[in-house]
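chain below, 61 aa
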Amino acid sequence: MRDKIAKLIDVKSIMTLVLTGGFIGLTITGQISGDQYLTIYTAIIGFYFGTQMQKRADKAE
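prediction:
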């Protein structure tokens, strides 16, 4: 359990969460549209999960 929490406290994880929160805030206040939010959010999440999958693949080798 402690190991899982330590993995969550990673710079990439923190940046992903902060950016997600920021874009949700911008969408709620109407500063960006839902379509723009979806595009940006998809790119951020895709990058995050892509790097996580690469780490797992590197460990498996």
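Helices lie at 2-8, 11-28, 34-60. The two ends are 25 Å apart (CA to CA).
thats it, cya
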